[in-house]
Design brief:
49% helix, nine-stranded mixed sheet, binds adenosine-5'-diphosphate-glucose, globular, 17 strands
């Protein structure tokens, strides 16, 4: 009985990410409407019951006036969110510039955007300064809200400078940092002018996490080769302590997808789609429209497949759903027109009066429509040129218990390490190989499909987002305790 009276201890967790998990629309001088966006990170942390999580991040809108800022802060508080206000110039230099134009392509092995390479090189220093400044602004908000005993979990390449800012202010704060993208080989990382500053700052954290063991190894070798530090199997010796470095592969809330398949609106969508594509095999691509996702390469491979397999031309359809992102970056605008051009050409070439081989949609789908699409798909094509993990491959597998469709997966997605045994792995740069994989997938005997699906399905349901978050945070706790013991000895 006594036990029931004691409230379970729930540790406070401050989750710091560039974007808050809400979209905010201004409705008046002091009125805002907010909508929670159900990203992977949100559902991962909702599932971790032992933590009381608060979010700190940018709300994605420019709010120059104090009345607007106060009203937004108040509205966000109800959603357990705390805003960081960034003005337009900072967003331009830090977010569009340093984060998305420099770090993002570099971490995905794509180098600087070719056309304005020199201009980027010239603006590098000012963008890096904006990056440091923005990270310090995030740190100021964390410091204002931090209470002793809180755990601070920083996310992604936007906030590599944050661990150092936080630790400089308060050495005792427990700080973890997780990278959602790949970490490149040290040979690539060393081309970055601010290579050392970023490494030093990340090393200030107590725990540094990556999706795969390879990324963790790349990070450790960057620290040994560029900074001359000592690497161990557990991490990096840094300023008299061990900064723990490890792999924490993310997952999805698989239950949410599996449950959704039984809902009437999803069932209705499924029936509609089955009717619409009757007599044809459905192939699916779902990506943010980003150069790392290899969308043009995927469509060219599909063209090659149609070229070589006349039999399949009127028996297969490729649905490519590509939600536009970062639309004010010129490189992304160019990608959109490139994809449109290729799709138009192929549909002109292989289409008939009644059917086209590729349906390309430039938008995001709601959750129910997405689940239905995953469920009716025969072959999913995930052909990222490089991808931290890739959750679309997980979501597809979760929705395929009935159909047992085939996953064609890039060997350069982190997911290749977890779903590789069940998927057909391809080099997305080799369109001949991808075209052959499409033929193999469409012709695969059902016994083999079942076996492969089972392997992947078991992985997806047993390595969930909730487990990922829980493991990271408990390891972060342990790491700090360990460090304290070491200093006491
Ligand atoms: P992303 O690059 O965004 O994430 P991914 O992991 O595939 O890539 O997640 C995308 C999410 O957006 C999925 O949940 C998917 O359902 C959704 N989505 C994409 N296109 C959509 C569309 N058209 N309509 C509706 N929903 C759509 C980054 C890294 C990844 C890493 C994750 C998590 O780049 O490698 O797996 O973070 O760490």
């Amino acid at each position: 009985e006594e036990r029931q009276e004691t409230k379970p201890f729930r540790q406070r967790l401050l989750v710091v990410a560039n974007r808050l998990p809400v979209s905010a629309v201004r409705k008046g001088e002091d009125a805002w409407s907010l909508e929670m966006s159900a990203g992977g990170l949100v559902s991962a942390l909702l599932g971790v019951k032992e933590f009381e999580a608060k979010w700190i991040g940018w709300a994605g809108v420019n709010v120059p006036d104090e009345i607007g800022q106060k009203a937004l802060t108040k509205a966000l508080a109800e959603k357990r969110c705390i805003p960081v206000f960034l003005d337009e110039e900072i967003v331009h230099q830090y977010y569009n510039g340093y984060c998305n134009n420099i770090l993002w392509p570099l971490f995905h092995y794509l180098g600087l955007p070719q056309e304005d390479r020199l201009a980027t090189t010239r603006s590098f220093q000012s963008q890096f300064e904006a990056y440091e400044k923005a990270n310090q602004m995030f740190a100021d908000v964390v410091n204002r809200h931090y209470e002793e005993g809180d755990v601070v979990w920083c996310h992604d390449y936007h906030l590599m400078f944050l661990p150092k800012c936080l630790k400089t202010h308060n050495k005792k704060m427990k700080v973890g940092w997780f990278l959602h993208t790949p970490f490149p080989s040290s040979e690539i990382h060393r081309t970055l002018p601010s290579r050392s500053e970023l490494l030093h700052s990340v090393l200030a954290a107590d725990l540094v996490g990556f999706h795969t063991y390879d990324y963790a190894r790349h990070f450790v070798s960057a620290c040994t080769r560029i900074l001359g530090l000592e690497g161990t199997p557990y991490g990096v010796e840094y300023q008299g302590k061990l900064t723990r470095v490890a792999a924490f592969p993310i997952g999805i809330d698989s239950e949410r997808f599996i449950r959704a398949l039984d809902l009437p609106p999803v069932q209705d969508h499924i029936k509609e789609l089955q009717e619409r594509f009757k007599g044809r095999k459905v192939m699916l691509g779902v990506d943010r429209l980003d150069m790392i996702k290899g969308i043009p390469q995927k469509i060219l491979a599909f063209e090659k497949f149609l070229e070589e397999n006349a039999y399949w031309r009127d028996k297969v359809v490729l649905l490519q759903i590509a939600v536009p992102t970062r639309t004010d970056v010129p490189e992304y605008q160019k990608l959109t027109s490139q994809v449109h051009e290729i799709v138009g050409r192929i549909n002109g070439r292989f289409g008939t009066l009644t059917a086209v081989p590729i349906h390309h949609l430039d938008r995001s789908l709601d959750f129910h429509a997405l689940c239905a699409l995953y469920a009716v798909t025969d072959v999913a094509l995930v052909t990222s040129l490089r991808d931290g993990m890739n959750l679309v491959s997980y979501e597809f597998v979760a929705c395929q218990e009935k159909k047992k469709g085939v996953l064609i997966l890039s060997e350069f997605a982190g997911a290749a390490q977890s779903l590789g045994a069940g998927a057909i792995l391809v080099n997305p740069w080799n369109i001949t190989e991808v075209a052959a994989a499409i033929a193999r997938a469409l012709n695969m005997p059902s016994a083999e499909r079942e076996k492969r699906h089972k392997h992947n399905f078991n992985h997806v349901i047993s390595h969930t987002a909730q487990e990922w978050a829980g493991t990271f945070v408990s390891e972060l706790n342990d790491t700090v305790i360990e460090a304290q013991l070491r200093t006491r000895q």
